[in-house]
From TrEMBL, chains A, B:
UniProt source species: Streptomyces coeruleoprunus
DNA-binding as UniProt keyword: yes
Keyword line: DNA-binding, Transcription, Transcription regulation
Domain HTH tetR-type: residue ranges: 12-72
Record-given protein name: TetR/AcrR family transcriptional regulator
Length: 201, 201
């Protein structure tokens, strides 16, 4: 393996330190009180180092979350929804992984801070949706469209709406903390959404 | 009709002015920057008038939201989910009304401010759920349990989980602003949840 130049390794170390500092700060202090200065101080880098790579606080935080998402995808295997041919098993697998990720304390505080800010700040919310959320939702669109082609989803069902029957309930429990997020809950949501609440004739 | 004593009418006017001021301020400035002093100034009452009735900012805001919810229930007929014997029609009716309420600009800013604070503030979030949200969710529990008794919901389905297939997707769209909240969307959610995404044999 070729040796990386020192400057590349230094840059990568700074980048990592900046992301860690940004996520820690936003989780502790909230979005409004997180500043580029605070991130720089905590990361042990100059403020200009951050401004060289990112134009704003929102930009560095979104990249930090994208990086966290990439790590989660590796840890929880969420890069693509598996297609074993068994839609119910595949959806239970991915919803259980989502439950684990939402319950992971490393993700909880920063993710809540970003979500809360997005609820009241339409501009940040739109960036959050476009860069972080919608790409994840498109994984469901692809899996559900494949299932539809295989005859496992009713013709006429819109996959972009259907996926919300899976992610909506989980997000609702997580954001509003109504009841515990468990694997059993994930399984029930998949069962109810696929087979319907009404009795089958 | 008996004439109300002047002091009762004055109290009711103050109460209304305090609720209006609290909702307006939290919608404009956010939860953190809303203060009892600010509410009192805007409502044109003394700060002691507020402290006589409520122990804290959270308490007056929760009561203001309960009052707003009561007004919405009147405007949108949401006090109870209708039971015409047609579960699908009844659910579409209530979900369309919820869409109208979520799209109502009078509710949007204060409701977002409270929801955002609940996402990052577990204590306020728990009060919000217990006093505002869970009573609304119990309306679904009752309607779905009645439908189950009538044979319109599969035996074994847990109504407290099932309702999240209706409210979760709507809350997801509203909170995260992914796509427009429309009556057609509400209808699709009801259709998919009741009849399932999988083809019926």
């Amino acid at each position: 393996m070729a040796k990386e130049p020192d400057s590349t390794r230094r840059s990568e170390r700074s980048r990592r330190a900046i992301f860690d500092a940004a996520l820690a700060l936003v989780g502790e202090a909230g979005y409004a009180k997180t500043t580029i200065e605070g991130i720089a101080a905590r990361a042990g880098v100059g403020k200009q180092t951050i401004y060289r790579w990112w134009p704003s606080k929102a930009a560095v935080l979104l990249d930090a979350f994208l990086d966290l998402g990439a790590q989660a995808a590796e840890a929880y295997g969420e890069a693509e929804i598996p297609d074993t041919g068994d839609l119910e098993a595949d959806l239970k697998h991915v919803l259980r992984a989502t439950v684990d990720e939402l319950n992971d304390p490393r993700h909880d505080a920063p993710s809540r801070a970003l979500a809360a800010e997005g609820v009241i700040n339409p501009e940040l919310g739109a960036q959050f949706v476009e860069r972080l959320l919608e790409p994840q939702l498109q994984l469901y669109v692809r899996r559900l469209a494949a299932a539809q082609e295989a005859g496992d989803v009713r013709p006429g069902v819109d996959p972009r709406i259907a996926l919300e029957l899976f992610v909506g309930p989980l997000a609702h429990r997580w954001l509003l903390r109504t009841l515990p997020l468990t694997h059993a809950y994930a399984d029930a949501v998949v069962d109810y959404a696929l087979h319907g609440l009404a009795p089958r004739p």
